Amino acid sequence: MSKTVNFTPLKDKVLIKRLDQEETSPGGIIIPDTAKEKPVEGEVLAVGPGTRDDSGAVHALDVKVGDRVLFAKWGGNEVKIGGEEYIILKESDILGILK
Fold first, then answer.
1. Please, what are the domains in the chain?
2. pTM: predicted TM-score of the whole model, two decimal places
């Protein structure tokens, strides 16, 4: 799904595209849009350069473009870029990278 976006996050920010959740439950029941929870899984589309320490050295982020990640349900800021919806969050709001 990797797609390029004309956006570069600053510092330790990450641009994520939420991945859609299942349309049906394990029992086969179709879940309407109004009952769906916000997905907490997404793909990293852009990352900032990292954070600076006290000496001014930049420390790169642990996540990279293309990573599938789990993130805090209510973290980050939802934005629209080019008509598409994304979420921008700090790397610290990312819970882990899916393998």
1. 13-98 (2.30.33.40)
2. 0.77
